Amino acid sequence: MLNRIKYSDDQIARLRDLGAEGIVAYVHRSRNTLLHWVLKKTIARFELPELLFSAFKPSSKAAQLIRSVRSGTGALEFFLRKPNTAFSQKKSEKRDYIKTLIRLQRNLERPIFLVPHLLILGARSSSLKPSTVDMIFGSRGEPGFLRLLFRLLIFSRSAKWAITEPLNLKIFLENNPQATDEVLSRRVRGVVLKRLKILQRTYHGPSIKGAQRIQLDTLRDNDLQNFMAGIETQTGLPKVKLYKKAQQYYSEIAARFDVDMIHLMDKILSFVWNRIYDGIVWKASDIDKLKQASQRGPVILVPAHRSHMDYVVLSQILYWEGLMLPHVAAGNNLSFFPLGSIFRRGGAYFIRRSFKGDPLYPQVMRAYIKRLLREGYTQEFFIEGGRSRSGKTLPPKLGLLSIIVDCLTKHKLTEATFIPVSISYEKLLEAGEYRRELEGAEKKAESRRDLFSSLKFLKRRYGRVFVNFDEPISFVDFYQEDQKDLVKGLAHRIISGIHRCTVVTPVSLVATAMLASKRRILSRAQLEWSVKKIAQYVQIPKPNIECVLESLLQDSVLIAEQAGRRTYYRVPEKAALSLDYYKNSLIHHFVADSILATAFSVSCGNNRRKIVKKSILSKQAQILSQIFKFEFSYPAGTSFEELFESRVQSAIDSKIMTRVQDQIRLNESKDSSEQLFFAANLLSNFIDAYWVCSKRLEAALTKAPTKKVLVGVLLDFLKEAVLSGATDYPEIVSKSLAENAVLLFEDLGILVWESNKAKLKQSKKEELKNIIQVLQEFHYGR
Asked: Which of 189, 235, 586, 742 is the most buried (most CB within 10 A)?
């Protein structure tokens, strides 16, 4: 059983290095004979510094400790206090070995390293209010022998040792030259206990308060109380009624975190993962980032949102890693029975899509989020708000982020860390649903019927799930660096982080290769060549696409046809939108270069020399980037000029373009032309969609009293453009593209709303004509 207990390679290497540099002292929070046995077994298995002295025996004496330290080799073991059980009520250790170590360190050249050790058994936190079991057998954080043995029997397969930052006693003494040994002993004990507490919180979370206590603390929040007092003064509504209403809102929002439910969900979800996926892939280094961030303060995980499975993927990984599970912000559309109850007990809290109608609701939600931050819980929310139907990362929604930032800045909780997360699926469960919605079908509200009908997904396989973490964003550092537009700047930094760590899947490579070909037909050799080129561009090894092709053929997303000895792959018109989802999942890698390539193609026109003034190229590229600002997120903290210059220089370095004084010329090689065409063609469907929407906007407004109807009419015009042959790209029939085009017209002031009815602003008609003209040039210029 003890041989199952894990010890990471990093921890082993670290302890060996410390043993070579000085004397290692393993420090436990509370005395336990079983802990001593486990540690001895671990030391023997992994050949760590040998244990010469242990304070677990009542017969241990200071003289033995002195001899062990003076030998200059090996390791020591200490316990800071005794567990509070019915059999041992003394909290502090009788002998102060720390004081003895301090005296010894004064006369030693080699440092003594106090290394806090914690044995991780399960993911359950200690309760703030001790139960009868706690008082008899010790708490979960400081168990007695029997309780530790019981937990070891249950969790031996997932048990692991965790260590945190060692305390260098030599440096500690140098930094406290005036303190007495008595004072130093207390300080050292306090530092090590604090580090053990942080380690405990990292894996098990803060001590659990009862549901009533969390509710009481939330509703006692000073800001919430002042807000209700203000409403009482303004309206005369009794505070008792307001408090009762706040309680109702709290019940509607709050999680009911229950570790027993987590254990049950793990059994169910493990079956689901094994049944429909070929594995969840994540990096140990990413988990290390999370552990380190958790030791500094509360962590906020911010993933992109692609699937309903996102809600449980991260929690599942953290559970397997033995870490504290996050409280997850979810839409209240998922709060229906029984899913809502299960999610609440798994850590989900539910938020309304809109706060209109009652100013008290957002104040209760703000107080709840503040309480979670104060308690030190890990949180998770989706920066895009809803799931992306198109595969692209949606523009960030700032509502919840604004609330979190406000809580952090106003209440001095700036030690929090934001971690951007990418969750990528080789094949998406909701692919069919998304295609129907993009084609114009109404989004169905989630229900119990959908929950049971989703069991059909258990009959198919959906490849692998990839979870990657970007570099953590220290909020205190970001706050000091970027005071201006703090929330917006943080949101775009998070989006950039998500893009950086997003995995490029083989499916997305094949999709991009097929859709970047105007005819949408490629031979096997051409497809292999294109995939290789794209893989080189995004700096990943060329994958084996055999399994991907088989899967796409099986799903009728591709069609294979034989001609002579060659196999050709074709994209059927009805499947273009499905394949477009996977292309869009990596298009952020190409956006800047695609804009440059499209602008170059149009600027050259019929110029056979393929040369254009840099100023003209820059102007055309800027127009395109402004038109598509609701489609794509550009790198955070980078101006257009900087981005333009970097992409031009990259094209020159890659020998695609050449700079001739103030002009940019395309190199004459065939490869240069092919790469330019490939990059430009990635934007073709976006250009055609916006061209149709801008050209037909005035006609659409005659039939469109509301935004919903306007989007539907524009979608019909996009469909008409495909059927009439005005465009070669059937994937433009996308609700997402029509909605974003409307957003652009609103942003430019071309489209205004009066009495909830859309109107074309007369003074902006000329601007609309200019946009039509520009997009038409791009459309025909290709």
From this structure: 586
Strand, helix or coil for residue 107: coil
- CA–CA separation, 609 and 256 (whole Å): 68
3-class state of residue 123 by DSSP:
coil
Record the pTM: 0.86
How many CB atoms neighbour CB 229 within 10 A? Answer: 12
CB 300 within 8 A of CB 294: no
Half-sphere exposure of 756 (CA within 13 A, CB side): 3
468-490 burial, b at 16+ Cβ within 10 Å, e below that, comes to bbbebbbbeebbeeeeeebbebb
Report the C-alpha gap between 422 and 443 in whole angstroms: 24
Closest to 355 (Cα-Cα) out of 336, 374, 332, 324: 332
Helices of type H across 205-321: 211-219, 222-235, 239-253, 259-276, 284-294, 310-320
What is the rounded distance in angstroms from the CA atom of residue 417 to the CA atom of residue 519? 47
**Which tokens belong to 170?**
């030599």
Look-up of token digits 């009788």: 94
Output the 3-class SS for 23-84: EEEEEEEECCHHHHHHHHHHHHHHCCCCEEEECCCCCCCHHHHHHHHHCCCCEEEEEEECCC
**pLDDT digit string (tens) for 371-380?**
999 888 899 9
Residue 280: burial class (beta carbons within 10 Å; 0-12, 13-18, 19+): middle
